[in-house]
Design goal:
about 600 residues; alpha/beta; Topoisomerase I, Chain A, domain 4; Rossmann fold; 3 domains; 6-stranded mixed beta sheet; 3-stranded antiparallel beta sheet; 20 helices; 12 strands; about 40% helix
């Protein structure tokens, strides 16, 4: 940019810089090749990292001191960024400061700006040259009419909590794999991997509660018996995982009772529950199939969004936790919280996808990021491996939840392609300014100071198709000596494919009968999937009574059932349409009276 008395720019440079007596080449041309650069505010830390990298092994003490200094600077910068962000949120909420007309000065009252800076530093420590970037925020506060007294209160509150955030509390974790069957290998692999991260981070087994069907590690199809891996070069993540709730005890009711700390409410299993206290933190991670407003479980019924939100409200009302973080891997996972989760429960959520889109399996056979050749199933899920591989490569005492969210968001988008999803966040967003270590613990290993996140494109398979995809992979690889097994597998594939086709056609016909060519009413952005959750559950149950189990695949149609409810269609009308559509259908293995109802 240029400013001031612009006509001076017409004068020669020599008037201000002098002129060398060396001859100048007449055919010279200025070079405008791209230059390698480092952002100004990061250059000092970058240089320190370079010095650390190049330190000789005969100067270990100097190297240790340098690493310590790097970590201290990184931690203080994170503290400054988090502190300013939290103060801004406290004083302005989601508002921006007033828009300044082009050409105006940064602030009207420079005395106010200087007071804001001084007040912040009195409570939160020196801004340093790095942190002076936040003067724009302080200017916004001044331009918005925020008083120095209000700033004093907010800074005192914020930086007291930042200092206390590593204080005396227990971190609890609940890990849920919501599927079963070898072809859903990835969900239990995700959960086992998460356990290993938390365990290495210092969480105790007594505070980690694991839900998994436990039919993968020793499955006859597993090419590495007794071992589960979550990435192509990954180590065994199964060893040592507590088997708190397995098999028939992996239920929605048990999950709710565990989260609420209701020991008398659990059935079977270890009877371990989240016996948290008011100052404690809770981390919840779920991985499986999902659908609009629903999360799958290996045993019926499924988890519906209204029930889950009510459990979270009840937990909050009990006053038995300070803050909770939920990471959720499933299709349409955003629909579990959008328009439903209050912002004042001290719960921060990130989801693998928004309310409309699929999530993705990864490390799948015949993709660009395949598993070891002996595996015919997907090893992980894109969102899940993204946050876990980040947690394993970063210093979690420095990285904030927001920083992890942004990196996971970028990687899960798969470079903003159609083979990726939009990671979302909900709830009490100010919690994202806390460090990840508060909720996941922190490994004592030494972290590389020149690490950079990897955002290479990942080979993926649509979450709902991944189990069938894995079955096809196994079928393709079966040898002629396994002919009987191969024929049985092909029969199973055909049965599943036929049932999925039946579900899709039946729902389409029922919608046509009940709504004609109309769509359901347009839902305002940010509103919940449905107003009457009882109606939605009744629609699902009525459909299954006549047309057979929706299965985790068919639960994608809950959006259609929600449209029916939002359009005022009665359950009686649904009963007539489902009977008319599926009266011919022989349910066999899909009979909900045998396998259970989804709702």
């Amino acid at each position: 940019m240029q400013y001031g008395t612009l006509w001076i720019s017409e004068e020669s440079v020599s008037d201000f810089q002098g002129s060398a007596s060396t001859p100048i080449s007449p055919d010279r041309f200025p070079k405008f090749d791209p230059m390698g650069v480092i952002e100004q505010r990061d250059a000092d830390l970058y240089s320190m990292r370079q010095r650390y990298k190049n330190s000789k092994v005969d100067t270990p003490h100097e190297k240790e001191e340098l690493l310590k200094k790097i970590k201290e600077i990184e931690a203080h910068r994170t503290h400054l960024d988090s502190g300013v962000s939290m103060i801004r949120h406290d004083l302005l909420g989601s508002r921006h400061g007033p828009v300044r007309r082009e050409g105006l000065a940064l602030v009207d009252d420079w005395g106010c700006l200087k007071s804001m800076v001084r007040t912040f530093e009195r409570h939160c420590g020196s801004l340093t040259q790095y942190g002076m970037k936040h003067t724009r925020t302080f200017a916004d506060l001044c331009n918005s009419g925020v008083t120095n007294k209000a700033m004093d209160v907010a800074a005192k509150k914020t930086c007291r909590s930042v200092i206390k955030q590593q204080g005396n509390h227990t971190t609890w974790a609940v890990l849920i794999a919501g599927s079963n069957g070898y072809y859903n290998y990835r969900h239990q692999a995700d959960v086992c991997h998460a356990y290993q991260i938390l365990k290495k981070g210092g969480l105790k087994d007594e505070n980690i509660i694991v839900f998994m069907y436990d039919d993968i590690a020793n499955n006859s199809y597993n090419p590495r018996p007794g071992v589960i891996i979550n990435s192509p070069e990954g180590s065994d993540v199964y060893r040592g995982v507590p088997k708190d709730y397995t098999g028939k005890y992996v239920t929605a009711d048990n999950f709710f009772a565990v989260l609420l700390g209701n020991k008398t409410g659990v059935k079977g299993g270890s009877r371990k529950v989240v016996a948290s206290k008011p100052e404690d933190k809770i981390f919840v991670f779920y991985s499986d199939h999902g659908s609009p407003g629903v999360l799958g479980m290996p045993n019926y019924p499924y988890i519906f969004a209204d029930d889950f939100i009510q459990v979270l409200k009840t937990k909050h009302a009990s006053g038995t936790y300070d803050e909770m973080v939920i990471y959720l891997e499933s299709c349409e996972s955003g629909s579990m919280f959008e328009g439903l989760l209050p912002k004042d429960l001290n719960i921060y959520v990130t989801t693998a996808a928004n309310r409309y889109e699929n999530s993705w399996a990864t490390y799948c056979p015949d993709t660009t990021t395949p598993p070891p050749p002996e595996f015919d199933t997907c090893l992980g899920d894109l969102y899940s491996v993204s946050w876990m591989e980040d947690s394993e490569s970063e210093d979690l005492t420095v990285e904030t939840l927001k920083q992890q969210y942004l990196k996971v968001k970028k990687r899960t988008s798969n470079n903003n392609t159609s083979e990726g999803s939009h990671v979302m966040q909900y709830g009490t967003l100010s919690i994202s300014n806390k460090t990840v270590s508060i909720f996941q613990g922190s490994s004592s290993k030494e972290f590389s100071t020149d690490r950079f996140p990897k955002f290479d494109s990942m080979g993926v398979i649509n979450q709902r198709d991944a189990d069938l995809y894995s079955m096809w992979q196994k079928y393709k690889r079966s040898t002629t000596t396994e002919m009987q097994q191969k024929e049985e597998l092909l029969k199973k594939i055909k049965e599943i494919t036929a049932h999925r086709t039946h579900l899709d056609r039946s729902v389409s016909l029922i919608r046509s009968y009940l709504l004609g060519g109309r769509h359901g009413p347009v839902r305002r952005e940010g509103s919940a999937l449905v107003d009457d959750w009882g109606c939605l559950k009744s629609m699902v149950r009525t459909f299954e009574r006549h047309c057979g189990s929706l299965t985790q695949y068919g639960m994608k149609h809950t959006r259609t059932f929600a449209d029916l409810c939002n359009s005022g269609v009665t359950n009686k009308a649904m009963d007539g349409a489902a009977k008319k559509t599926c009266g011919w259908f022989k349910m066999g293995q899909w009979d909900p009276e045998i396998v259970g109802y989804s709702s």
